[in-house]
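Sorry to interrupt, but I need a hand with the structure work. Can you supply me with one protein entry, sequence and fold together? No commentary is needed, just the two lines. Leave the record below and I will have a look.
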Amino acid sequence: MASFDSAGPEGSARAHTYEVIFGHDTPAGKAFDVLLILAIVASITTVMLDTVQGSQDDYARLLRSLEWVFTALFTVEYGLRLWCVDRPRAYALSFFGVIDLAAVSPTYLALLVPGGQVLVVVRILRVMRVFRVLKLARYMGEASVLAAALRAARYKISVFLLAVLSTVVIVGALMYIIEGPAAGFTSIPRGVYWAVVTLTTVGYGDIAPSSPLGQAVASLVMILGYGIIAVPTGIVTAELTAARVRAGDETSVCKQCGHSSSDSAAVFCSRCAAPF
């Protein structure tokens, strides 16, 4: 995320506001972040409760009032962020700036589109600020390695998904021919739906083959499903290992004590001296 400086001179109201809102290493900044995260969680809980029938009947007015209170607080906070930084436009277009704006927009949108307030669940993305509060930002490097692995595996996964799509279309058409409308396979798309549900081992059971041949095909699809589930996992795991090697983050794990070493050239464990 891009860094922003205070818009005012040291000791000014803008500088003090900037220190509280963006000063994650100061006591005031930490307290602000913790209170902000608690408010985000509370606002999301309010929206969730507002969709529960019992809560709607008994506490509809209270929940709606709380939602407007949270929205007002977040609106003021967003305005203060723009006011105290030196580049308000750049902040508004930054990742967290867009998320901050998206967090307050749905409630106002609900005035024009009924039910739009449920979109405030996007506020959960603002909890990502907990990485700074708890000093977990150094672990974001792991996310970069994972993203690199997914990018490297995209072609293999695309081929895999194409093969799966072809399989479910063929099986769906086959089951439509074998079972027909009497067993619930009223069309090829309906058969494809059954193939997807069966191949992924979900098994809703809303459609089931009744003939011996159809049950035999279903059995093969079920067994095939277990093998298919393992394929993308293996692809991503292999690319993740390769990404770690490219990033110079390959580790050696001791078979004796389980201690890991970031030194890929190490021959012996630094804890128990056992050979790797």
About this structure: The first strand starts at residue 252 and ends at 253.
